[in-house]
Amino acid sequence: MDQCPDVLTIQAVLDGEEKSEKVNRHIQNCLSCRQVYRDLSGLVSAADRLGSEAVLPDQFYKTLTARVAAKPFPAGLVAAVMFLFTFLSAYLLEPGYIQWWLSVGMTGQISYVLDIFFDVLFMLQTLGPFWLIITLTTLVVFEVLILNKLKVVEGLNDG
Ligand SMILES: [Zn+2]
Fold it and tell me: pTM of the prediction?
């Protein structure tokens, strides 16, 4: 045999699938083919060692799947952490700012709600006493309904 066999043929010889006398003799006599044969048999025995010694734990694939699977992004938690971080760094950099926000900012929000309340009152006054009475009556009826509902819930809790 003049030409060297390809790697697949040498692999076949190693696996015992290729039993040609010519190929076998060539591998024994040819330095480069012998080297390929030795490399391949080294790989095979290494693969055998891997296969025989390593035993995967029972839960391996389950654990792997759980780890690889995309976890839901905890957006709420991240937002809370970022808010806390911002709050803390603002406090550490300028403690007075937080106090300012708590006093002026909070008061501003409360006064905004109060403004709306008074605006509604003024609007009702301009509409006349009729609408004021209707609105207040509606609120009273609504409150009575809520209280009744709460009483029912309490009654269920007692019984
Ligand atoms: Zn050769």
Answer: 0.32
